[in-house]
Design goal:
The protein is mainly α and 406 residues long. Helix content is 76%, strand content 0%. The longest helix is centred in the N-terminal third of the chain and has 33 residues. 51% of the residues are buried.
């Protein structure tokens, strides 16, 4: 196995990160509506999942990891297609006023609100884990106490002042995360080349197979989730821009994921049984000493901003679908209680599975609505496809399994 890549290569990692940050901060780019609209779903799709997914897939699926991430991204794209179909149809017809459409939309909104409850716990538990990943403190109690404190801090902020000031940080954290991912991919590419030159690339054997592998993939859906956020940007962007932003975010994230997983799987050796939510930090230390610090910085910024965004989104969503019977403030309280229960009652991999199931319910309902709308519009073949997708969403919600950590 090659040693850490040379100093000049580490300079290339830093240079790639800086150049990516400068490119993302260009006024001309930030002024484009399609880029502004795409930033939110793109940041969500390749957020927390990016950090945990590489080691999980390499450990469980070995050399087939790139195929698995390709299937996950395809599944997410199909669910995105169902949501885009609903956006297009309901935006141009009076079907949105029909009772059955409104009720199905309400049910799916409740499902999404609950999914946000779980995802906030997911984000902040990862924050707690990564906060101690480079220290000797570590351990579950310290991480869980940190997560609990953050939940209460965010609740206090939302209850007293709302999240407007914190939301202003979103583009900063998104740009930081995407820039560090650019540096990570460059570092992995250089390391991959060094391993290839020494004939050290390998095709590791999978440890998951059969039905257990299928339900494990189901349990990882949340790691490519986030594209649906485009649908809820209607106050800022027109429908065509939101549709295009979702498609573009999914295309770009798929390319990033495929590249990242392939480079990591075949160049780095993952030890079975040593899997943890922060395994990526130790793995990247093999590539370049600077990468763990960069990754931890990206993780902390990404998890905090994502948790704030989802808590704010969940509060507004529950207030809307409950016809304000549940106020935004009390929705924050409910979310905090659920987050604390998950934090102390489950590990990160279990929370990932719960979040995947929760989002699968929402995606399945949206696919069911798309099937009904397609059949009503005479598009029977498309309706059958969306119907199959709805059944798959139900299957994921029922059977999605958690990764077994170390």
């Amino acid at each position: 196995m090659a040693q850490n890549i040379p100093m000049i290569a580490q300079f290339a990692i830093v240079a790639a990160t800086v150049l990516a940050a400068l490119w993302l901060w260009r006024p001309a780019l930030r002024a484009k509506p399609i880029w502004q609209a795409m930033t939110t779903p793109l940041a969500s799709i390749i957020g927390s999942g990016f950090l945990v997914l590489g080691p999980i897939l390499a450990t469980e699926f070995g050399g087939f990891a790139p195929l698995v991430i390709g299937l996950l991204c395809l599944l997410a794209y199909l669910f995105g297609a169902a949501i885009r179909f609903n956006m297009a149809v309901l935006g141009d017809s009076d079907l949105g006023q029909r009772y059955w459409v409104r009720r199905l939309e309400d049910v799916s909104s409740w499902a999404l609100g609950f999914a946000y409850f779980v995802s906030v716990a997911y984000y902040l538990n990862l924050f707690g884990a990564f906060a101690f990943s480079l220290t000797d403190v570590g351990g579950t109690p310290a991480a869980k106490l940190t997560t609990s404190a953050l939940l209460l801090l965010i609740l206090w902020g939302g209850w007293t002042r709302g999240f407007k000031q914190l939301e202003a940080m979103e583009y900063v954290t998104v740009s930081l995360k995407l820039s560090i991912i650019a540096g990570l991919v460059v570092g992995l590419a250089i390391y991959f080349g060094a391993e290839a030159a020494e004939g050290q690339l390998s095709f590791p054997p999978p440890t998951a197979s059969g039905w257990s592998a299928v339900v494990l993939v189901f349990g990882l859906l949340v790691t490519v989730q986030g594209f649906e956020t485009s649908r809820y940007l209607g106050d800022d962007y027109d429908r065509e821009t939101r549709l295009a932003s979702m498609r573009l975010a999914q295309w770009i994230s798929t390319c990033i994921y495929l590249t990242y997983i392939a480079l990591l799987t075949y160049a780095l050796k993952v030890q079975p049984g040593a899997l943890s939510e922060t395994a990526i930090v130790a793995m990247m230390a093999v590539v370049a000493p600077i990468l763990p610090l960069m990754l931890v910085g990206a993780a902390l910024a990404a998890q905090f901003s994502a948790a704030v965004a989802d808590m704010g989104g969940a509060g507004g969503l529950l207030a809307e679908v409950s016809r304000n019977r549940i106020s935004v403030r009390w929705a924050y309280v409910m979310l905090t209680v659920v987050g604390l229960a998950l934090t102390w009652g489950a590990d990160v991999f279990q929370i990932i599975s719960y979040a995947s199931r929760a989002f699968a319910v929402y995606y399945g309902l949206q696919a069911g609505l798309a099937a009904a709308l397609a059949v009503r519009g005479g598009q029977h073949l498309r309706g059958a496809g969306f119907g199959a997708l709805a059944l798959l969403g139900a299957g994921i919600a029922v059977f999605g399994a958690a990764v077994e950590g170390a």
